[in-house]
Write a structure and sequence with these properties.
This protein has 249 residues and is an alpha/beta fold. It has a single domain, classed as Rossmann fold (3-Layer(aba) Sandwich). It contains 6 helices and 11 strands. The chain has a 9-stranded mixed beta sheet with strand order 9-8-7-10-6-1-4-5-11, sandwiched between helices. Strands 2-3 form a two-stranded antiparallel sheet. The protein binds adenosine monophosphate. The site of adenosine monophosphate has 21 residues, from α1, β4, α3, β6 and α4.
Length: 249
């Protein structure tokens, strides 16, 4: 295939402890370490491996978000993507809007495969890939833990509640990555230097002609209740009595 398109979302790094703003209007993001959504990094690693096996000619990384997303796109370029597209947008967008905008980019790129993360760890929606496939009217294989390409067919092992499911999808298709698909490579300094010279296109989201009005509004954000401390018991008898006391058995 010619191109693989990988969608990268900029999110608060998974190691950072999230705090809700005192007025409940959202979470604090100022000054926090931001990273590529971990599942998207896995998606990109998979695209690069497919390209390295000679099954794709190029990898383009695409992000929708503020200008600062350039940092994550540059990391994607340093990992090995050939070019990047930033769709600049200063407001939060819902998965449906993201899918509609990504569809427009898909129509431009005409990729043989679109890879996304199974979910973004900021909103945990797990919707964008499914919505994009539906809007594009192409097959989808979500929660991929293995991906093999043979001509115009992808064989995908999916992680489902009952275990593993293997399906075949005709390409072009949308695949979303699960945790066990691969382990992303580390970026080395020379790659970071090389990435500075790789092409990055910036497009204003307004140019996509998608209505950004969302049907979803968040009315209030609250931190979850503190978990009470656990207790350590001496032996099985003590464990059973403790469970009985709490009426758990
Ligand atoms: P979600 O449905 O929000 O959990 O996101 C699922 C996946 O869609 C993410 O892992 C990304 O690959 C992709 N995605 C969602 N929002 C964006 C965005 N603003 N820019 C690029 N990719 C995105």
């Amino acid at each position: 295939m010619k191109t693989i398109m990988v969608c990268l979302k900029r999110v608060v790094d998974y190691n950072v402890r999230i705090r809700v703003k005192p007025d409940g209007s959202g979470v604090v993001t100022d000054g926090l370490k931001m990273s590529i959504n971990p599942f998207d990094e896995i998606a990109l690693e998979e695209a690069l491996r497919i390209k390295e096996r000679g099954e794709a000619e190029s990898v383009v990384v695409v992000s929708i978000g503020p200008g600062d997303c350039q940092q994550q796109l540059r990391t994607g370029l340093a990992m090995g993507a050939d070019r990047a597209v930033l769709i600049e947008c200063d407001t939060d967008i819902s998965p449906l809007i993201a899918a509609k905008v990504l569809l427009k980019q898909v129509e431009k790129e005409q990729p043989g495969l679109v890879l996304l993360g199974k979910q973004a760890i900021d909103d945990d929606c797990n919707q964008t890939g499914q919505m994009l496939a539906t809007l594009w009217q192409r097959p989808q294989a979500t929660f991929a833990s293995k991906l093999e390409i043979a001509g115009s067919v992808a064989t995908v092992t999916r992680e489902v509640d009952a275990g593993l499911e293997i399906i075949e999808v005709d390409l072009p298709a949308v695949v979303t990555s699960d945790l066990r698909l691969n382990e992303p490579r580390y970026v080395k300094l020379p790659d970071i230097m090389k990435a500075k010279k790789k092409p990055m296109e910036t497009i204003a989201i307004a140019d996509f002609g998608v209505d950004l009005g969302s049907q979803l509004t968040a009315s209030k954000w609250e931190a979850p209740a503190e978990r009470s401390k656990g207790i350590r018991v001496k032996d099985v008898d003590a464990l059973i009595s403790a469970l009985k006391e709490k009426e758990l058995v």
